[in-house]
Structure formats: structure tokens, C-alpha cells
Amino acid sequence: MNPAYQEPWYHRATLYHIYPLSFADSDGDGFGDLKGIIQHLDYLNDGTSESLGVEAIWLSPVYVSPMADWGYDVVDHTAIDPRFGTMADFERLLAEVHRRGMKLLLDYVPNHTSILHEWFEEARASRKSLKRDWYIWADPAGDGGPPNNWLSRFGGPAWTLDETTGQYYMHSFLPEQPDLNWRNPGVRDAMLDVLRFWLDKGVDGFRTDAVYGLVKDKVLRDDEPNPNYRPGISDPADMFSRVHSSGQQELGSVIGSFCEVLAHKADTFLLSEAYLNIAGLRDLYQACREHPLHAPFNFNLMGLSWGAHYFRSFIDEYEAMLGPNDWPNYVLGNHDRHRLVKRVGPQRARLLGMLQLTLRGLPVVYYGEELGLSDTHVNKNQRRDPWGIRVPGYGLGRDVARGPMPWNSDIDAGFTTGVPWLPIASTAAHLNVEQESRQPSSSLNLYRHLIHLRTQSPALTEGDYRSLQLDNPYVYGYIRETELQRFLVILNFDNHHAVVTLKGKVGAWVAGTEVVDGDGQEPLDGLVELGPYEGRMYELIRGGK
Ligand code: GLC
Ligand code: MG
After folding, report:
1. Does ligand 1 lie within 6 Å of residue 107's CB atom?
2. For the chain, how are helix, strand and coil distributed in percent, rounded to 5?
3. Helix axes 346-358, 443-456, angle to 10 degrees
4. 173 Cβ inside 6 Å of ligand 1
5. CATH label, 9-112+186-209+251-452, candidates 3.20.20.80, 3.40.50.150, 3.40.50.1010, 3.40.50.80
6. Which tens digit of pLDDT belongs to each residue from 109-149?
7. C-alpha angle 186/190/194, rounded to 5°?
8. CA-based, 20 to 30 A from 165: which of 102, 200, 360, 391?
9. How far, in Å, from the CA of 423 to the mean position of ligand 1?
């Protein structure tokens, strides 16, 4: 790391999202673990341009959990699940991450706990329990059914009857994940303490899970019918618009309280998980006006219609919405969505990878995305994700995006010496770290090259973004520039060749989706012909308005 660099680390880092169960298994139980991650840190960043070069890592949950939702059902927020290792392993991981100049973010799960959490056990013991109000309880409706029409994201009602006390408790996700009541000050205090615990341990920030539904309507009004819902086609959980079960105005103050806690420590950063359009993102940025160390994830690139125009207008609008202290971010995949390559195909995936890594703002890369991995095939009897199991037939199962990381061409992909918890992808024999490291134009080398360029180029980290009006509607082009450095990126969204005139622009090739490295490539001189889905970046030497 460059010690002279003054900006916050997240202005220059690429954030690498690890799903710990699937990254590397050190003890042969078939589940990835902390020691496995430690063993592969050099892959992420060994201080040289040989490694991927990411400067921050986010871990999906590693806390004690019965794994009903694979760790997103937490029993103890401040202890490590034995499946992942020990607290000593965690401390070593953190030290090793820091030693390599990287930052570590944990997954903070404030919306719910596991049904086995001691808070819930206490709450459900009696209506008079001191912790009763830490969760959301309501009497049955007149007919004995659930108190309102709220639906669980993972199938069925958001309410489960607790026989002992005769009331329903609310869960936005599984019945094994009862929602906490964020209107209760005790919950706030206890959950903010969780943040303090990990900050004291030395972590650099958090990704906050399922933020949008944290606060619910006080009087539990019914959600409203969703006009876009198509029975039998849409996810059944989308039957209603979650106007009362999520998105309440008080959410801002809760996020603000997270930022207050993080602000006590230097160099921290918070990302909130919420699937929102630009107006919704603007509201969440507002929540931490006092402490600009927070950003809501921008998931929109995953849902845009394909075309240079759609991407350009979305990004221009997003950029225009951001305040001077707001830091943008771009996500192309995560553990809840089909993999990028599955959604758009390998060529478009490379183009979007180039887009993401050359835009202004924090790029978030989901493990394996850099290898160009597609979904893993998972048979019915290999399924692990409760969502896919509870709501079959809609393609909702998330196992396909959570396949073991392929490290080499061995039968077990170098992931485990035991039986992997999810099957190894059939492509692992050729799409893996070892193979791709040797191929100059592999997806891995494309990511590696772009990530290093990014880290080293002020124009890409701190520079302005400005899109260009080009003479070819299939090509999206933009400039990234500081006073001293200027890059031009041109991306062909069409599956045919595309010619663009770039009058007066002269520059050196620095990166491309086809020819990854700039060395020996033709310089730019006025006219460019791009291949299908080809992207290129030039460093402009003069002109370049
Ligand atoms: C978030 C997580 C997802 C999890 C859910 C419940 O959406 O990303 O994996 O199942 O919250 O915690
Ligand atoms: Mg293991």
C-alpha cells in the first residue's frame, strides 16, 4: 500500500466477497473454513502483481449457527462457529489480512436471530418475559390464523404460531429466523454492542444483512397487493408490496445508529443490503449524512436490460444522484443470485467486469466471478438452500451460486480432501485458479490486470466520471480523469463488430477484454473497431475532450 495515499481505503479497494462455506476447506469436513481462507490469502493479495490485488474482503457469516440458513441464522453474534474454526483462527485471519494491507468486513445480521438464540428462548418462554418485546409477537387473527398478510421471503406466511404462549412471532425469512424488534431500546443496545465487539477486535467494517425490513409498521397493517405479481410465474413471496412489513421511515435512524458506532473508529466502512432503485438508494445515503462512511449496495446492474444505452443512462443517473461525500459501488453477483456468467454469458460477463472495475466507486467481486464461473449444477438430492427446498419450481434455490471455489484441476478442485458440501462444478477442470493463472487472456488475468491498474491509477480511483456521446449506439464510452491522468473506456454491447470515431483522441492501450494487457497493442488514433462485446481502455495522451 502506498503510505502517501490520503483517501479512505474504500476509494481505492476492490471488495472481494467470500462465502466461507465454499472458499477452501482446511480440515476435510467438506465445508470451507477460516484456516482455508488463511491458506489462500496470497491468492487475493500477496503484495505483487501476481496476485488478484484486492484490498478488502467481506465474509458472509461465520458466527455460531445451526445453519438453517447457512449462517444467516445466528445463535451467538460474538463467537465463531466450530465449523469455521475458533476465535483464535479468526484473530489470525484478521492479522494476516491486515499484514497484507487488506481490510476485513464482517456480515452483520441485525434483522433476526436464530430461533435457538438465548434471547428468543427467553422471549418465547412466557408473555411476561423481560425479553418478550425483543421480538415481534401478535395475537392470532379472529379465525386463529396469522395476524396479517405479511409473507416470508422464503415461502409461506411471515408468522409462526408459538403453541406455548398462543401468539404468533414474525419472521421475514425462515421460521427458524425470528425478527428482532428494532423499536425496542434493549435490542438496539445489544445489537450495537455486537458492532463494538468486532470493531474492538479490529475489523474494518460490515456488510449489513437485510436492512430494508429492519423496522416494521407499528400497528402491523397488511401489505398491499403487488400490481406486477403474476401468479404461478412470480416468486410467491412477491404477491404483496412490502409497504408495511419493510421500508419504514424509522429505518434511517437505525442505520444512523450503526454509523455513530462505526464513526468512533477510524477508517471503517458500512455497506447495507437493500435492493433499491436510485431514489431508494438516495434515501439510505441520507441516513448517515453526519458520517459519510456508509453506502447502500447498488445491485441495479444485475437487473438492467442489456444495451449500451440502458447502462449509460443508469450510471449517469446514479452518479448524478450522489452527494459530494457519497461513495458509489457496483455489484454484479452475490450468494443470493445466479452467477453473472449464468445470467449474461461469458463474453458479456467480461465486458461487465471491465465496466465495474473502471467505474468510479467500490467494485464488489463475488468469489469465483474473477474466474468467469457460471452456476454449479446441483441435483435435487444435493440441495442445501432452504429457500429452494421450501419453494420449488421457481428457480429460487441459491446453491447454484455457492459452489466450491475451484483452485486446481484435481477431482476435488483443491477445495477439500473430503466430500464437498455442494458439488464441484463440471467446468472446474479448466476454469480454475491454477489453469487461468497460466492463460494470459483468462478471465482471472483480466480481473487481475484491471484491479491492479485501478489501484495504481488516480484517474480510476479518485478521478471524475463523464460519459461520452458516441456515434455508435451500441458502444458505451466514458472518461475517467484527474488533472494529471485521463482514461477512455469504450465498451461494445453488441454481438457484432462496432466502429466508433473518436476524433482527436490519441492514446495508449492499457487494458482490454480481448487482449488483456496493453503491451505492444496498437495505440488509439481517431477510429476504433471493436469486436463483439469487446471493451478497451486507453490512456489518453493529448486531446481527449
Ligand atoms: C440476506 C442474505 C441472504 C439471507 C437473508 C436472510 O438477503 O444475503 O443470504 O438468506 O438475508 O438473512
Ligand atoms: Mg472445513
Report:
1. no
2. 30, 20, 50
3. 10
4. yes
5. 3.20.20.80
6. 999 999 999 999 999 999 999 999 999 999 999 999 999 99
7. 165
8. 391
9. 21
